[in-house]
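Lab notes, practical 5.
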Amino acid sequence: MSQMAVLDVAIGLTFMYVLISLLVTTVQEWIASGMRLRATNLYDALANLLADPQLQDQPAYRNLVVDFYRHPLTQSLYRRPGIAQSIASVAEFRAAAKSCLPSYIPSRVFATALLDVLRGKASASSACGLDALFHGASDTIDKLPEGELKTTLRLLVGSVSDQTNKLNAPAEQASKRIEQWFNDAMSRASGWYKRRAQLLSFAIGVTAAAALNADTLHVANTLWHDTALRTAVAASAAAYHAETRGPDGNLVPASGGVAVQYAQQIKQLDASSLPIGWGKHAPGSVPLALVGWFLTALAASLGAAFWFDLLGRALQIRGSGNPVSATTGEAVERRPKARN
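Output from the prediction step:
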């Protein structure tokens, strides 16, 4: 076998990984949207950020995360704003994340709503303006019961009023520091979500590989021994890459809803010429099939963008080499043109 045959097998496997990865991503997004995993992850991150064991014996501060979600600014981000007042417990609020709580909260909203909630607990005064709220941030924090939350907030904004005499500088500094605290926490939460999403992606990948009989070992072996099929798959991969490549060379996301994307991806798998499926390509040894499905799922968990970029590089190498015979699959040496 020539080096071109090895390259075509690699192109076929990479092509399969692109299509399976897209299918896995579509199913994952459908699950994440249906179960509102991002909203639940955000709620857990805020509960962790505002948790303070020393405030558990303080009734006014025990359910601080619930009070934050009940603030009017936060409620404006709900899918169903009026539901907040009907939720009684912390557990019910977390459950509500799956139906109505926001999946994203701007850092400015967090800083404003949190300080307003804390100010309301420390003072019986009426609502105040935004500048007054942040100008009085240090006083609000000083009135908090002793604990981890007070220590953290005091470190963040305890001395901003001493930094400058500019009119609104202390308020701006207080806001920016609380917002940065929130953004740092959201970066950690994003890491938690990505790890969970990757595990979910792998589980979906194993299921998809088994359902489609997308066995890496079987596909590689079949392509290696079937010259015509190998050439057809390489041609399908080249056509697919040309159709879905954007101006920047990256994969263009499919348009339409989840159901439309899923149908398109199944259609592309059927038209790919890849030796997958349960009809014509029954697996051989069960242990080897399990290993093959595992390898497919592992590859799919890396994401379609990674494999699409690799597919483009492989096709570029193939295109720069000698042409391939459609009958033998071997490279045909280019002969120099005769000079007159």
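Observations recorded by the TA: Residues 321-340 have pLDDT under 50 and may be disordered. Residues 169-212 form the longest helix (44 residues).
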